Every structure is written in structure tokens, then in C-alpha cells.
Amino acid sequence: MNIKSLLLGSAAALIAVSGARAADAVTVAEPEPAEYVKICDVYGSGYFYIPGTETCLRIGGYVRYDISAGDVGSFDGARSTDVLNGKDQGTWHKNARFELKTWTGQETELGTLKTYTETKIQFGNSAYYAGADGNQAHNKGAALVYAWMQLGGLRVGLDDSAFDTFIGYAGNVLNDTIVPYGDFSTNLIQYNFDAGNGFSAIVSLEEGSVDTNNVFYVGTIDSYVPHVVGGVKYTQGWGAITGVVAYDSNYEEWAGKVRADFNVTSELSLFAMFGYGTDKHSLDVASGRDFYKQWGGHWAWWAGGTYKFNPKTSFNLQVSGDADKNYGVAANVAYDIVSGLTVTAEVDYDHFGHFNDGTPFGNWTAADKKNNVGGFLRFQRSF
């Protein structure tokens, strides 16, 4: 056998073996086309279709860090306390918060079906100078802030009271409740009507809520009769005129607010709001306060506005007062360092006219007046 015949024979053998192995090989199926997330621009930016559904979802929220000092208003953070001597050290407050928000939207034969949720997790430091806890950290845990669904104009679930959401909050200041203008969280059933020509209206049946900062009144309904809120609004390019009225079924009290908003220029916007409420139970605790009429006495007012120096920097102001001679001023400058990251510096002042001296029936007097100053520094990354 010559070399040529040997090479040809070897090649034939290799081809035969190769063909046998190819016949025994496992056939791999081609991969199915991937379903990439599709953008949904029906409800605004940031929405995408949940794969396999017609529901659009948006996920957002923020991370916030607050530093505060002074004695003005309420604050989520903890402060140094000497529990041995029962003394509030009056130094720094600090608080970190993570808030997660979700929005959904879907078109149905009965209108747009929406949901909204908001959950916050907070952490604040507490310094104790006595006791077994020592220098302890305080994790304040998670809280559900909002969770509602809406079909067309019908909304049910957990939301802020329509006494506040429909007429608007009291300015773009951090401490907007130096003179309070209403309570907030409540379970509710409400209907929103939009005529499409600038006129809108709302009716809301509300449960109220327990205010852990005020033990002197009952906020949650204690019978089969709900709290009731109604409102009307007229909106145009120059601004809006709004009115709301609320009935507290626990105390059988009424409260109302009217508000005017003005878009003076593209840089300057102003608002003014006036509230009035009955206080037949003023001989009870909290000087006649109820779930809606949180201010002292029959009437209260709030005014302020926002001026935008440039697209990144704005100045915000609120002044307020009530019939009990409580007055407040809050002013801040908010600056967007980059898109989504804002730092806000605020100074607050309040003057107490009448305040509770701690007696069981709330002996509110005009003799003990007090002036307080405080401030915030807030860092917030929104996404």
C-alpha cells in the first residue's frame, strides 16, 4: 500500500465517523424573541408597559436627609434628650428617609383605571444620657402613606383629606404647618368631577385618623356617620379660585377654606388662603380643634408664593396666623445642584399666642407668649 492510498483511506474513515456523530447530535432550538419593556407615554414620562398586560407602571421616589435645629413646628427626626433630668437638650434633629412611589394606569371601557402608592422608611438618631439604652440609634420603621385606586372620577383608599388635596397645600416651604390648615391621612371614598372648561368639583366621605401628636381630640369617626368634604374650583391660565367645606361628624363641627392662586409671571406665583370653622366644643380640649379645623379660634389665614430666580433656584415664602394670635413665617431657598438632586435651606419663626399649659382641660391662656426660631437643611435625591 502506497502513501497516497493510506491518506485517502484515513480521510474516508474520518468522514464516516464524523457523519455518524453528526447524526447523533442534539438539535438546539432557536431562542424565542425577547420581549423588551415597551415605553408607555400615555400618562407622562417614566411609564412602561408591564410585560404581558395593558397596564402602564411608573416607579419613583426619593432619598432624603434632614438636619434641623430650634423649636419651630414638628419634625420627623429625633433630638437629644436628657431622660434623667427630663430635659430636652434642644440641639440638632436628624432624619434619613427613603420613600418609594408607584403609579399605574390603564384605559378601560369605564374610564382610566389608576393606582398610587407611597411607602416611607425612616431612621433618626436618639441620644440618651441615662438608662440602659445608652447612646442608641432609633429606626422608626416603615409606614404606608398613600394607597388608593381610581376608576374615572371615583377614588377609594388611603389619601390625604380632600380638605387639603383639592384646595392645595400651604406653599412650597418645608414647615408649612406652623399654623395648621387641616389634618391629612384618611381612608376615604370620593368622587372627582371635571367639567373640562375650568370648573371641577369633589365630594369625599372620610374616616379621619388618629393624630399621635394631639391626644386632645378624636380624629377617627366613632359612629356610622363619616366625615364629609365638598369643594368647587375654577382654574384658568392666570391661576385658580377654590373653596372647600368639611363636616366633622364626631364633634358636629363645620370648617371651610377659600383660596386664590395667581400666576403673576412665569417666575412669580402667589397664593392666599382663609379658613373659618365653628368650635361649639371649645370648652372641651384643644381649644375647639377637630379633624379639619386644626387652627386656634374661629379663623386663620395663610399667604405666600414662589419666585424662580432661574431654572435651578427658587425662593419660597409662607406667612400665617389664626384667631388665637399664633403667627408663623417660613422662608427657604431651594437649589437644584444637578437634575434630581436638590438642597433646601429654610428658616422658620413662630409666635405662640395661646397654648396649652398641660392641664387636663387645656387651660389656654394669652399670658404665656413664646417666640421660637428654627431651621432646616434638606438634601433630597428624587428619581
TrEMBL record:
<keyword id="KW-0732">Signal</keyword>
<protein>
    <recommendedName>
        <fullName>Porin</fullName>
    </recommendedName>
</protein>
<keyword id="KW-0472">Membrane</keyword>
<keyword id="KW-0813">Transport</keyword>
<dbReference type="InterPro" id="IPR003684">
    <property type="entry name" value="Porin_alphabac"/>
</dbReference>
<keyword id="KW-0812">Transmembrane</keyword>
<comment type="function">
    <text>Forms passive diffusion pores that allow small molecular weight hydrophilic materials across the outer membrane.</text>
</comment>
<feature type="signal peptide">
    <location>
        <begin position="1"/>
        <end position="22"/>
    </location>
</feature>
<keyword id="KW-0998">Cell outer membrane</keyword>
<keyword id="KW-1134">Transmembrane beta strand</keyword>
<keyword id="KW-0626">Porin</keyword>
<dbReference type="Pfam" id="PF02530">
    <property type="entry name" value="Porin_2"/>
</dbReference>
<comment type="similarity">
    <text>Belongs to the alphaproteobacteria porin family.</text>
</comment>
<keyword id="KW-0406">Ion transport</keyword>
